[in-house]
Write a structure and sequence with these properties.
The chain is mainly alpha-helical. The protein contains 11 helices and 2 strands; from the N terminus they run ααααββααααααα. Helix 2 crosses helix 9. The mean pLDDT is about 85. It is a multi-pass membrane protein. This is Branched-chain amino acid ABC transporter permease. Keywords: Amino-acid transport, Cell membrane, Membrane, Transmembrane, Transmembrane helix, Transport.
Length: about 290
């Protein structure tokens, strides 16, 4: 019996990590958009939903393998984000309430547009047979797909860190974040930085949607629930990349453990209560960094 209980706890922890990994990919997109552009993007959940539908369309109508649907989801949703940023968001910078309302309106448009095109019936994203198997390690059973999610998330995080801390573009992003006017005096085009960052953040949400589409049914409203978790990860993490990594792991594990001893609904309730209490005593999050905004 103790072995069975211990195995259940380990499986719950692994499940929490796999869910947290996908939250993290979505939250990274939110983090870099808010950290660089200063926009609270209420349409981020719909970017995630578009990523899931992109995978569904590419599989159903073009026969594209799942592993190729992931990067395809990034580029398709990044292109959508680029159009939205160029057509709307760039005119609303430094107007937080207007951007909040505008992106909320965009989210409604995207949701209803997908409903018109594909209907409200659930859709599904399939994976190769190998991802549907399990690997037995002692008394612990690991899903091959969840192992893939761990590795993929680690790759995305490493790539994001490299992009923003080891490249010329990353240096430009950090310069614009610190002082837009000073960065412009050195020839850095802040407008281009904002455009590129917004597109990258949208693309990351698209990839997260592709992965979530495997674990759940694909619906026009699916982004609403997942974006709440992504926002919580960003807020608890303090709006920083390392904070998002820590917060996603912590919240994912807590929800999985709470769900194991109760149910998923009550687990979310407990998690939200703990987050509210945490933010009461540490409103700037886990790893908040003081910085000058534009």
């Amino acid at each position: 019996m103790p072995h069975i209980e211990f195995a259940s706890v380990v499986n719950a922890l692994i499940l929490g990590l796999s869910i947290a990994s996908i939250w993290l990919i979505a939250a990274i997109g939110l983090t870099i958009i808010y950290g660089t552009v200063g926009v609270i993007n209420m349409a981020h959940g719909e970017f995630l939903m578009l990523g899931a539908y992109t995978s569904y369309v590419l599989q159903s109508f073009f026969g594209l393998p799942f592993l190729l649907c992931i990067p395809a989801s990034f580029f398709v949703v990044a292109a959508v984000g680029l159009v939205i940023e160029r057509g709307l968001i760039r005119y609303l910078y430094n107007r937080p309430l207007d951007t909040l309302l505008a992106t909320w309106g965009v989210s409604l448009i995207l949701m209803q547009g997908v409903r018109i095109l594909f209907g409200s019936d659930p859709k599904y994203v399939s994976v190769p047979d190998i991802f549907q198997s399990n690997v037995e390690i002692g008394f612990v059973s690991l899903s091959v797909f969840r192992i893939f999610v761990f590795g993929f998330t680690a790759t995305v995080v490493a790539g994001t860190v490299y992009l923003f801390y080891r490249t010329r573009f990353g240096m430009q992003v950090r310069a614009v974040m610190q002082n837009k006017e000073m960065a412009a005096s050195f020839g850095i085009n802040a407008d281009r930085v904002y455009m590129t960052t917004f597109a990258i953040g949208a693309g990351l949400a698209g990839m997260a949607g592709c992965l979530f589409g495997v674990l759940a049914i694909v619906l026009p409203t699916m982004g609403t629930a997942y974006v709440v978790q992504a926002f919580l990860v960003v807020v608890v993490g303090g709006g920083t990349l390392i904070g998002s990594v820590a917060a996603s792991g912590l919240t994912g594990e807590l929800q999985s453990i709470f769900a194991m001893v109760s149910n998923d609904t009550f687990a979310r309730f407990l998690l939200y209560v703990l987050i509210v209490v945490f933010l009461r005593f540490r409103p700037r999050g886990l790893f908040a960094v003081a910085k000058a905004r534009r």
